[in-house]
Structure formats: C-alpha cells, structure tokens
Amino acid sequence: MAAVQCELKDGSSADLSKTPVFSDETVKTIEKHESSGIPLQSSWTFWLDKAVSGTTVEEYKENLTKIYTVNTVQSFWAVFNNIPNASAMQVRYSYHLMRDERYPLWEEPVNQHGGTWRLKCHKSDTEKIWKEMVLAAIGEQFSECMADEDEICGVTVSIRDREDLVQIWNTNASLTAKATVMEKVRSLLPSVNFTEFYKPHQSHHAYGRR
After folding, report:
1. Distances in Å between the alpha carbon of 68 and those of 18, 96, 135, 174?
2. What is d(CA 75, CA 40) in angstroms, rounded to the nearest whole number?
3. pLDDT at 55
4. Which parts of the chain have pLDDT scores under 70?
5. Hey, which of 78, 118, 176, 186 would disulfide with 30, CB 3.0 to 4.6 Å?
6. How far apart are CA 201 and CA 116, in angstroms?
C-alpha cells in the first residue's frame, strides 16, 4: 500500500497508511482485540481520501487509502483513537467508515443504487457528529430506521473550506421515504445544529466521471 501523507492544521503531517501510523505495539493491540474482543455485527473499514477534481472513477479508487478493517468493538476504538481527529485534517480530506470492505465509491455495484443523508455542520461540531454517527453505524442503531430492503453501509466526514460535511450512506435510494434516519440523528445530537438533505448517488453531476 502506498503511503499517503495527511496534512494537519499545525503544518505537520501524519502518514495514514497502515504500518507508519500504527506502532508495532498498537498493531499487536489491535490484532489482540480482533481475536478476543466483542464482535461487531459486520466488519467495518476505515478509508482516507483527498478530493482532487478532474480525476476519473478509476483514479479516485486508486487514490483511496485503506487504513484498517475492524471486526470488534475494541479494535474499532484502537484504530479510531490512533488516527488524527477529523477536526485535525486539512481542507479536502475525508475519512470514510464503510461496512465490510466496500469502497466509498458511488459507482461500485454494491453502492450504486444508494445515496447519502448529508449533514452540513459548523467546524466546532464536526468531531462530535462524526463520532456519534460512526458509533451509531457500528452499533447498528440505524437498523430500526430502515426499510426491510435497505441498510446503512457507511459514514463519511469531509473537511471543507467553511462548513464541513458528514454523510450517512444507505444502499437503496428508492426506499428513503420509509426511513427515519434523520429522526434518529437528531435524537443522538439534540444540541447540535446542522443543515440536512438527501442525495442519491446517481443524481450527482460527477457520477461515473469524477
């Protein structure tokens, strides 16, 4: 895996490819948690990317960095606590936490019929929203909010110039009218203000051509 440098706000950089970012001791701890921790209902994979305009779908996919796939509650925390906070990343970077090992890519067959609930938020709230949403996702707290043929399959946090963006991915955009995801989000974040809307992947102007 190629190393990817994540520029931090203080001008330093953190290498988020698997080996450099995690010490040998941390890797051993993660592996121990993977074998003996409380299992998640499904595995989840952390990804990193930096938005670059004008790239093709293939180039976007090649530029993604897989950080780690976790299978237990304890290994999730071991990874989450050993990567830079979302609020520490510079503009245009994104973290993704995706179910199983699927790519955070609209055009992937497993994703292409879905979309995302998009939360535009103040930068002071980004870290809190991101943390609450990934915990809700791995804890399957959204399962009661979805239609039978739909599920939550990922969460993304993207750092932007002004307001940041947190996205909650689902697999079937045609069933969102039956979902109560935003009611759940507001119950988890009662004191946080954000602007929300839903967008099917295939409605993006850049779908199929980044």
Report:
1. 7, 11, 16, 31
2. 10
3. 87
4. 1-21, 210
5. 78
6. 7
